[in-house]
Design brief:
mainly alpha, about 0% strand, about 75% helix
């Protein structure tokens, strides 16, 4: 008796929305510009807090000068503290906006991007308290009275050193978030591919810079101008592209890693 061959059922394609991934954004250019605005605010607040405020007040290795600066300009320090808070907040908002823009490309990569940013932001918030404690140690009456002027100055410097190295530790995650972002940009078709490569290179630069800082600081100081320029250029170009050009409409294809694409059938 001859068996009649049966044709395997054709799998029903699953849409990105049904797979829990979400469709491509309806207004990618508008969403890209929102992300660009958030990213620009990260840059503005970060430059003010790190270069203007800490560059003016924090003198590594000199406790007396650091404490004197804090005592003379407490308002500037407080403004820098608030700027740090806003920088970290807007970085997380940037990642969330880019997640909405790019999640259709690869859901897992988009989630990883947000997770890396959230971890780096959490570390930033955690170490910020030590910097504010430095202001208290240098300016609030109980501390110099209990520790003496030199003791309170040394405590303030130690707390700012703790913040400094804690922030640099968080830089690991600020480098890691650029890797999935660069991959998503490269794969999306919404941006030029070279921009994705540049972001990945910037992320690698962040990671190399952090490792060298803690292992071989002398080598890091030598390479810092090159690595710092690479990471800065990558982020500045991304900000400018988001704000000026926005994003092209997304490709209408199944996202990588999703069950959208039908499974291959056996050859007959």
């Amino acid at each position: 008796m001859t068996k009649t061959p049966t044709t395997p059922p054709t799998p029903t394609p699953t849409t990105p929305a049904a797979a829990g991934i979400g469709p491509a954004p309806a207004s990618p250019r508008r969403l890209a510009r929102i992300a660009g605005l958030f990213y620009l605010l990260v840059l503005v607040f970060g430059v003010f807090a790190h270069l203007v405020v800490r560059g003016e007040l924090y003198v590594p290795g000199d406790a007396a000068a650091t404490a004197a600066n804090l005592a003379e300009q407490p308002t500037l320090f407080r403004l820098g503290y608030v700027a740090d808070l806003l920088m970290a907040t807007f970085l997380l908002l940037t990642a969330m906006a880019l997640y909405r823009l790019l999640r259709h490309v690869h859901a897992d990569a988009a989630r990883a991007m947000v997770v890396f940013t959230a971890v780096g932001t959490a570390i930033t918030f955690a170490v910020l308290s030590s910097s504010f404690a430095a202001l208290l140690a240098a300016t609030e009456e109980p501390y110099p009275a209990a520790l003496g002027d030199s003791g309170s100055a040394a405590t303030a410097l130690l707390l700012l050193d703790t913040h400094h190295y804690g922030y640099l530790s968080a830089q690991v995650f600020f480098g890691l978030w650029l890797l999935p972002l660069g991959y998503l940009v490269y794969r999306s078709g919404m941006f030029p591919r070279w921009l994705g490569v540049l972001l990945i290179a910037g992320g690698v630069g962040f990671l190399v810079d952090t490792v060298l800082l803690f292992l071989v600081p002398g080598v890091r100081d030598t390479l810092d101008p090159v690595v710092g320029t690479l990471t800065s250029v990558a982020e500045l170009v991304m900000i400018a592209w988001l704000l000026i050009r926005g994003a092209r409409p997304a490709r209408l294809s199944a996202p990588a890693g999703s069950p959208s694409a039908p499974a291959p059938t056996a050859a007959t």
